[in-house]
Structures are given as C-alpha cells and as structure tokens.
Amino acid sequence: MEEQFILRVPPSVAERIERLLNENSSSSEDKSLDLSFSEDGKSGTFVIGNDHFPASLLDLPCVVESYKTYDDSVLIKTADIGQMIMVREEGDSVPDVLEYRHGLTPPMKDARKRRFRREPDLNPELVRRVEKDLLNIMAGGTAENMDILGVRQTRGSHKAEADDASSH
To answer: Residue 120 half-sphere exposure, CB side, CA atoms within 13 Å?
Structure first.
C-alpha cells in the first residue's frame, strides 16, 4: 500500500497551493512548500513561500479508505488513512486534544460523540493493580490481597443439582 495523508488547510492557503500546482512554478511567488514537525511529532510548521503556518497532526475518529482507478471502472484500495495534518491560520488556537472530533464529510460531524460508544472512566491505579495481578497469575502466582477459597464437593452433589434443575 501507498503512504498517504490528508492535508486540511485554510481557504487562502488552498488557493495558493492550487496556483502553485497549476501554474508555471517560475512565475509564482510561492515557489516552495515545506512541512516540518517538532520532536513530539504532533505539532509543526507548514511553509508556503515565505509564510509560516502552524500545523497539527490529529487522529481521525475513524479510518478512511483511499482508492484509485486506472480504467474508471475498477477501484483499487491504496491506503487506510487514520490521521490528518491540519494547518491553521497564524492566530487560530492550538487544538487541545489529539483527536479531531469530526470526520471528513458533513454526515460525520461530531462522529465520536454520535456514532461511537463512550469510553469508560477507569481509575488508572485500579488498571495498574489489575494488570499486575494478571501478570502474577499468568506467571503461576496468585493475585495480591485476595484469598482463594477451596470448594469441597461431596459425592453425588452434581447429580443432586441436576435433579433440582430438571424438576423446576
């Protein structure tokens, strides 16, 4: 599969990119495009010509499949896209979350809230303790702070339970 990404830019930047791609590059004042990210990999800078715009790498609420065709009748899947690079105007606020709330099309507006189950609120300490207990059990040990009670069966107890269940 190919490597693809979605680049969402403000309308003014989109016009400049379109002009750069359609016109002779020697006649355009926007002769270069550059996209660079900081060490965290989630924020960066988009440069077109001499103008710098802040950019963010955001997760999409669901995976988008990308297709192409060579003969206008057969579609070939080329990529699964799960992230988007969002370029903002200089004064726009930085998104405080790493996931974009909306999808790419109007029906997917607020998709995470409307279409997907809410993630449960879990206590991180409880998760760590349960994970540690599971690792201990898998290693042949026992869980901490738990008592294991033995169950004693008497001869014929299964038969008596089966008779009680069938009589009801």
So the answer is: 4
